[in-house]
Amino acid sequence: MIYTVTLNPAVDYVIEVPHFKEGSVNRTSREWKYPGGKGINVSRVLQRMGAESRALGFVGGFTGGYIESTLSKESITSSFIQVEGDTRINIKISGDTESEINGASPEISAENIKELEDQLSGLTSEDSVVLAGSVPASLPKTIYKEMIHLLKEKNITCYLDTSGEALKEALKAGPDFVKPNHHELAELYNAEVETMEQAVHYGSRLREDFGVNHVVISMAGEGALYLHDGGQLIAKVPPRKPLNSVGAGDSLVAGFIYEHQKQSTPEDIISFAVATGSATAFSETFCTKEQVEELLGQMECTRL
Ligand SMILES: Nc1ncnc2c1ncn2[C@@H]1O[C@H](COP(=O)(O)OP(=O)(O)O)[C@@H](O)[C@H]1O
Ligand SMILES: O=P(O)(O)OC[C@H]1O[C@](O)(COP(=O)(O)O)[C@@H](O)[C@@H]1O
């Protein structure tokens, strides 16, 4: 079974505000609300691909209730731990440019963490775990590192997607997969990563420095770079105007896991992953399997 862990879920409130003006009364022309947070998005996209997963993490209040009931309506199983405060609301403004305001997490208690550790300690080497998203302020930035150490002791495959200090720490535990976007990679090495050449350079350093088998550097409209034992691949789709790129990175992660678990070739894995990310970027909300399959036919995959 694939388990996704979202320590900091959110209700995503995505609003279209043409010509958004700071300091004025603005009105939305269209809006969407859906359950969010990186692991939850991975579970939702896996479900669209026809793959089962179980969503874990912390939820609370009316927003937490909305997330649980929406996942249940979508037939996604979850075992969330209830916390005292309300799950955050993240606002995504799509106007002439895209802006995001991500809320703060409710407090997570020591008992809450113990419950999650108990859930993870019941997993076996047949399972895999996706650790994704930011770490709530009340938890140590080393939490993913500690979880990966525990999971690796049992030979459980760990997929990681986080940023900043939590990423830096978690890498020390040697996850099997990591997907920074090029900004996150730049922050990790305190360097500029804007071109594919720079991504190859720092992505290769990441593999060597932390011994991660599967490194994907996502480059938004430029697709993604996949660095693995067998070589280096770049996959991208022909340029098109994105409609809403919220969740595109998480969709890429879901597409990667879906194809990786089928033990497909590296070319097929990264092509499917990028097609999934881009299909979400070209949709108003999240991609469907049909949209992914359509984009797969247009994919350009190059070996370096
Ligand atoms: N403008 C775009 N055009 C086509 N695909 C996109 C676009 N933006 C994002 N994507 C797809 O989503 C993936 C992840 O996007 P990216 O912005 O790099 O990550 P994140 O959402 O994590 O910041 C890209 O590798 C690509 O497949
Ligand atoms: O935990 P963080 O880093 O605040 O990110 C959470 C936000 O990112 C998302 O998971 C989307 O991430 P991506 O656009 O990178 O795929 C939203 O659903 C959520 O609001």
Automatic annotation (TrEMBL):
Annotated PANTHER family: 1-PHOSPHOFRUCTOKINASE, 1-PHOSPHOFRUCTOKINASE-RELATED
Segments forming domain Carbohydrate kinase PfkB: 7-283
EC number: 2.7.1.144
Name of protein: Tagatose-6-phosphate kinase
Organism: Sinobaca qinghaiensis
Role: Catalyzes the ATP-dependent phosphorylation of fructose-l-phosphate to fructose-l,6-bisphosphate.
Family statement: Belongs to the carbohydrate kinase PfkB family. LacC subfamily.
Record key words, sorted: ATP-binding, Kinase, Lactose metabolism, Nucleotide-binding, Transferase
Catalytic class of the enzyme: transferase
Annotated GO MF terms: 1-phosphofructokinase activity; ATP binding; tagatose-6-phosphate kinase activity
Annotated GO biological process: carbohydrate catabolic process; D-tagatose 6-phosphate catabolic process; lactose metabolic process; small molecule metabolic process
Catalytic activity: D-tagatofuranose 6-phosphate + ATP = D-tagatofuranose 1,6-bisphosphate + ADP + H(+); beta-D-fructose 1-phosphate + ATP = beta-D-fructose 1,6-bisphosphate + ADP + H(+)
GO cellular component: cytosol
Keyword Disulfide bond found: no
Pathway: Carbohydrate metabolism; D-tagatose 6-phosphate degradation; D-glyceraldehyde 3-phosphate and glycerone phosphate from D-tagatose 6-phosphate: step 1/2
